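Suppose you are handed a protein chain with no further information: no name, no annotation, nothing but its sequence. What can you learn? This example shows the usual starting point.
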Amino acid sequence: MEKIVERLRRARAVQLVGHIHPDGDCIGSLLGLHHMLGQWGVAHAMAAGGGGAGGYDLLPGYELIREEPDPAFAPDLVVFVDTASLERGPESWRASAPIINIDHHGGNTRFGEINWIKDSAAATGEMIYQLARHGAVTITPALAEALLVALSTDTGSFRFSNTGALQHRLAAELIEAGAMPTRVAKIGFESQPIESLRLTGRVLSGLRLTAGGRLAWSEARAADYAEMGGPERAPENLVGALRSVRGVAVAILFHELPERRMRVNFRSDGSFDVRALAERWGGGGHTGAAGLTLEPVDYEAKREEILRTVTELLDRG
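A reasonable first move is to predict its three-dimensional structure. Written in structure tokens, the prediction is:
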């Protein structure tokens, strides 16, 4: 942390980068660093490809996040947050300055000059809070709110197995600093467009149980997305609703995307390592939550391959 704070404070211009299809942790972490660098008077810009279906536009500074870094902005330092590999970053941009890599995914490829990877952290936002405290940053209400959004969304509102006493203590400190739990809940969980709710209904109505009830899966097909307004309408933790069925050890949500692309989300009850599962097809994540994107692919053939593999693994016990 000392090295990161030193590099940030003496930088002339910093490009902050998050992963494609940014979630609450990614956006909250970007905005946390945005508020930190603002206090230090360091010029900076933010980018994270694609939007989400939540209410993150209610966060101060969100409007400054571009889908791609501005080519006219010339940073002397680049900071990636919550991004496990360069391939998860902006599709048509590569950093031309030294990289600091801050992430909580154990499968991170360590692509930075400085790599702070802490897979014991519940969220990258938790690490940004520790960095802010280490750098003697004033935890303003806007900074606290961004980081509480990051922490609450990546813990599933403090329901996931990555939640412990530390996360509750951090949340309490952020609330004491000015974050309002009701507003954070609205931003992270209660600001879905109506198309997202309709898509949720479509996915839940297609829920299937296999492997003796231990595997739950569903899908969002291309026709569903065409009707509902596109893949960006998918709620952030839709696969978690599938995992909530009693007796389910693994849940899988398949997404059929344009241009023969396919995204797959995995969730586990903790008894099954879905990160190792995702890594079989080039993905990654955490033990209890992982995913992957494939292209080009025969959607139905790959879906059946993945289902067959998971079923076989579950049947082995």
